[in-house]
Design brief:
four-stranded mixed β-sheet, Lyase 2-enoyl-coa Hydratase, Chain  A, domain 2, 2-enoyl-CoA Hydratase, Chain A, domain 1
């Protein structure tokens, strides 16, 4: 179990309260660039959350003035100098980034990105992989890969067309121009844009609301939404029916019906 109080050192801060786990990328001097230590800590904590039924909502944010600047290019350059050869980006992605992105999508809990500043490169991909995105009005999203002769990765080419459409995704990827938070909201990339000093509170309000919802129903809903991105209508309908059959047999469904009849708020247990 993570500690009751946040860890005050290390590349990833973990805070758990009232069923909400907040993961804070904690390399503010490097704009929370993703080095090996931070990626390993993030992947390990995502694996731990999958086994922890007490966590009902996950929030991902950054310390300081950035969400994440993406891959730590200084670390990449140092590795190249030390090893005398260019790194294998395919291996880097498969070994370190893919477990994080796939792990986030596999979490049964809703995951909210609280984008407090620039989200660039793989940092933007990390935000895209979350279920919901709140952003400070000073935040921005940037697919900077082309500026160093690379392609968008860590799921960016899969998530972004589904979030904003193929044309806008291509524009962001080809031009590498930043997308402001207000424009991101207008295009459907983020759910809500708020003042920077309200971001944590607004995110917390939604997280607290979701933490009182029926956990199993949320998990099954997330499964259905994920599946819908890859199948046709008939298969989606069949999958919905199968999941609804599971939801209908839960104690939380029975509690929800009782609460409705009794005209009181439901008390969902996750059973």
């Amino acid at each position: 179990m993570p500690p009751d109080d946040p860890e005050h050192d290390g590349p990833l801060l973990v805070d758990v309260a009232d069923g909400i786990e907040t993961l804070t990328l904690n390399r503010p001097d490097a704009l929370n660039a993703l080095d090996d230590a931070l990626k390993a800590a993030l992947a390990a904590e995502i694996r731990r959350i999958r086994r922890d039924r007490s966590v009902r909502v996950v929030v991902v944010t950054g310390a300081g003035r950035a969400f994440s600047a993406g891959q730590d290019l200084r670390e990449t350059a140092e590795r190249t100098a030390n090893e005398g050869r260019e790194p294998s980006f395919a291996t880097l992605l498969r070994d370190t980034y893919h477990p994080i992105i796939l792990g986030l999508r596999a979490l049964e809990q809703p995951v909210i990105a609280a984008v407090n500043g620039i989200a660039a490169g793989a940092g933007a991909s990390l935000a895209f992989a979350c279920d919901l995105r709140f952003a400070a009005d000073t935040a921005s999203f940037l697919l900077a890969f082309g500026r160093v002769g690379l392609i968008p990765d860590s799921g960016a080419t899969w998530f972004l067309p589904r979030l904003v459409g193929p044309a806008r995704a291509a524009e962001m990827a080809f031009t590498t121009d930043p997308l402001s938070a207000p424009d991101a909201e207008r295009f459907g990339l983020v759910n809500r844009v708020v003042a920077p000093d309200r971001l944590a509170a607004e995110t917390r309000t939604l997280a607290a609301r979701l933490a009182t919802a029926a956990p199993r129903a949320l998990a099954l809903t997330k499964r259905a939404l994920n599946r819908s991105l890859e199948v046709g209508l008939a298969e989606a309908l069949d999958y919905e029916a199968a999941l609804q059959g599971l939801a209908g047999r839960t104690a939380d469904h029975a509690e929800g019906v009782r609460a409705f009849v009794d005209k009181r708020p439901p008390r969902f247990s996750g059973e």
